[in-house]
Design brief:
The complex is a heterotrimer. By secondary structure, chain A is of the alpha+beta class. Chain A has three helices and five strands. Chain A has a five-stranded antiparallel sheet, sandwiched between helices. In chain A, α1 packs antiparallel against α3. In chain B, the strands form four sheets. A five-stranded parallel sheet of chain B has the order 2-1-3-4-5, with helices on one face. A five-stranded antiparallel sheet of chain B has the order 11-8-9-10-12. Chain C has one domain: P-loop containing nucleotide triphosphate hydrolases (Rossmann fold, 3-Layer(aba) Sandwich). Chain C is about 30% helix and about 30% strand. The two termini of chain C are about 25 Å apart. Chains A and C meet through α2 of A and β3 and β4 of C.
């Protein structure tokens, strides 16, 4: 199972992501078909169902960009009253979901998450 | 082969050299009498013909198949390619085979465009009920189309006019005696095979070897029954004294099948069809017109012949048992369609008359409650290895 | 206020690998919008890809009316999508893979989940892959429905066969009609 194989690497990178960026309160790595690989958080958010929802959303994103012939969907950002959620592809099989409760931290959220996704992509490509 | 609607089926041709294209056009305009129209634009096509033997033919086919898998397609090629859902015509093209394949395409395309006849635009007030009503209206038309399609099969239901149930002479016309036909013999074999669980029944004395195994819904015979054969067989009075039933164990059955190279058919479909042809829109002798019909479950319509209004009749009977005459009246349909459906459904033990009570002798709610008990009975008294049908039969006959 | 009702929404739901995406592809006249992704868990043994959000297809009827065909994800962890997709539907089609480990239990999952809809919404059950003869046979499904006091149409269907799917739609129509 892919989720089991990438779990150690994913946990390591998520931990670093949360350490490097104060604004990021939680992050998780999920497979494109909605299985949770790893999760880190600075609180007690109920995130279990986010794995499947994140995969649905990312797939819808891919479907929409495909329909519009805009290429691959890099990320989906959900800006909300009490925070921001970013969904982005790590590779063809994995998705990174990161969450901040600070409405003004979109830039931080995206830049750190993007770097984390790139590093994780390299790390899991050798597995 | 003439398309009665005068609307030619639009066929796009792909990857084809001019000579073959011209040849196709000649066939379409000539022997096919304008039933098909060769067009260039695949977007407006209803079907397509694909030449696989051109340069990049396979690659083009893959792209085409991914994008237009919904279009019925004929592949022309020297060698057959597996794993495609398309129709295949081998080159050099055999005219008859090609025209037959076009007929298949037509059969696929014509129902598609006629699923529902032209509808007038409907306007409804904006609430849930109105949406539902609109759907109901549209749905009605969809069902009617099923009827139009199945009307072509009116041979299933005969030509009997509606009768006046108060006229004793007229009533006699709607009955037939299954005992004179193969139907009853098969029903008897069905019953015995059903009761003996693991036993098959060999029917001896027919011109063809025939075995039925009710447990697995199988009928084995030494000849494949084409429609014409079966129809003749259905209507031929049988010489009862020459027919015999013999019980076979499952092992004997397997040996018998292997030795005689028998072909398998689903038993219910066979008996359903045979009964329709025997009944011709009539009822088995003795069927009470005023007793409620209980339909045990929806007929297996993807495997059985769908007679006119069969879906509506099933929907109605599953909702509420009703007498045969009241069913025709309520649905405003010819009685013969109800009779035909009942005859076939009762032959495969799917429909039964509620023999316990007369419709007029007890209040409606009591009848309903008793009929409802069939599910209660099934839920509270589960008997291992006995189907619901058997349980209900046991209850009705007790 | 008056509105023009020109669209009818039907939803295909049911277990993973039962053929929901195939069924919609078979009758849709537009290329099906789907959200299939690679399967990464043990379900991969049964299926290379799986739907994670929805499938969508269309069938235009004469007169311009549209049947909008939605498919739900089959895997239970995506059940949060089911009520989202069924909203506004006028008919439900539950497909069950007869060759699965326990297809009657699979059917029970969907019957239980959609129970509150079944009373008002015409529903048809299609049992797929019966040709493999690995399942419990139709009587097991009839018994289950009877025990649940449900009288829903249930047919063996091949999701690749257009006639079977048209039959299902016509059955939904007949059920609406005799209400």
């Amino acid at each position: 199972m892919l989720s089991k194989i990438v779990e150690p690497q994913a946990s390591l990178h998520l931990k670093k992501l949360l350490e490097d960026c104060d604004a990021i309160k939680a992050a998780m790595v999920v497979t494109v078909d909605g299985n949770l690989c790893a999760m880190q958080q600075k609180g007690t958010y109920a995130l279990e169902r986010l794995a499947t929802m994140g995969s649905s959303l990312m797939s819808l994103g891919d479907t929409i960009t495909g329909e519009l012939k805009m290429g691959f969907c890099n990320r989906i950002i959900s800006e909300n009253e009490q925070g921001i959620v970013a969904f982005m592809h790590i590779n063809n099989e994995l998705v990174l979901i990161s969450i901040t409760t600070e409405k003004n931290s979109l830039g931080m959220l995206l830049s750190h998450s993007k770097r984390c996704a790139e590093n994780l992509a390299k790390a899991v490509s050798d597995l | 082969m003439k398309n009665k609607s005068k609307q030619a089926i639009r066929i796009a041709v792909l990857g084809m050299e001019t000579r073959t294209r011209n040849l196709l056009k000649m066939v379409f305009d000539g022997p096919c009498r304008g039933d098909f129209l060769l067009i260039e634009d695949i977007q407006s096509a209803q079907a397509c013909i694909f030449d696989l033997d051109t340069i990049d033919g396979m690659k083009l086919w893959e792209t085409h198949h991914a994008r237009y898998s919904h279009l019925p397609t004929i592949i022309l090629s020297v060698t057959k390619k597996e794993n495609t859902s398309a129709f295949y015509v081998r080159k050099p093209i055999n005219f008859d085979q090609f025209v037959n394949t076009l007929e298949k395409i037509k059969a696929l395309v014509v129902p598609k465009t006629r699923l529902v006849p032209a509808l007038e635009e409907q306007t409804e007030s904006k609430n849930n009920n109105s949406t539902r009503f609109a759907a109901l209206h549209n749905a009605k038309l969809a069902t009617e189309m099923a009827v139009v399609k199945t009307e072509e099969n009116a041979s299933w239901c005969g030509q009997l006019e509606d009768i006046d149930p108060t006229n004793p002479e007229a009533i006699q016309k709607i009955y037939y005696d299954p005992k004179q036909y193969l139907q009853s013999f098969l029903e008897k074999a069905w019953d015995i095979s059903n009761k003996s669980q693991d036993k098959a029944i060999l029917l001896e004395g027919l011109y063809s070897k025939m075995v039925i195994f009710q447990k697995k819904n199988q009928l084995f015979s030494s000849s494949s029954f084409e429609d014409n054969n079966l129809r003749t067989l259905a209507l031929l009075p049988i010489a009862k004294n020459k027919l015999q039933l013999r019980v076979l164990t499952e092992t004997e059955l397997n040996n018998f099948i292997e030795f005689n190279q028998l072909l398998e058919t689903p038993l219910d479909s066979f008996l359903w069809q045979l009964s329709l042809w025997t009944a011709q829109g009539r009822l088995p002798k003795g069927t009470d017109l005023n007793k409620n019909v209980i339909l045990l479950h929806w007929p297996n319509f993807t495997r059985l012949v769908v007679t006119p209004y069969a879906l509506k009749i099933s929907a109605l009977w599953m909702k509420k048992p009703l007498s045969l005459l009241d069913t025709a009246k309520k649905l405003e349909i010819p009685q013969r369609y109800v009779f035909a459906f009942y005859s076939a459904a009762s032959a495969i033990k799917l429909a039964l008359l509620d023999r316990r009570v007369s419709q007029k002798s007890l209040p409606k709610d009591i009848i309903d409650r008793r009929v409802d008990q069939r599910s209660l009975n099934a839920a509270t008294n589960p008997i291992p290895k006995r189907s619901f049908l058997q349980r209900l039969l046991g209850r009705l006959h007790s | 206020m008056r509105i023009i009702v020109k669209e009818i929404k039907l939803v295909f739901t049911g277990s993973m690998g039962a053929g929901k995406t195939t069924a919609i592809s078979t009758i849709s006249e537009i290329p099906v919008v789907n959200t299939d992704v690679r399967t990464t868990d043990k379900a991969r043994l049964r299926k290379e890809t799986t739907t994670v959000a929805l499938d969508y297809g269309e069938l235009t009827l004469d007169g311009g009316q549209k049947l909008k065909l939605y498919g739900t994800p089959g895997q239970q962890r995506f059940e949060y999508m089911w009520p989202i997709i069924i909203k506004g539907a006028l008919g439900l089609i539950i497909l069950v893979d007869d060759a699965a480990d326990d297809p009657v239990a699979d059917l029970a999952i969907y019957i239980k989940f959609f129970k509150s809809y079944l009373e008002d919404m015409p529903t048809v059950i299609g049992i797929t892959r019966t040709d493999l003869k690995q399942g419990p046979g139709m009587p097991a499904y009839y018994d289950y429905l009877q025990n649940q006091d449900l009288q829903l149409p249930i047919f063996p269907v091949d999701p690749r066969q257009r006639e079977h799917l048209i039959m299902i739609i016509q059955t939904l129509a007949a059920m609406v009609e005799v209400v």
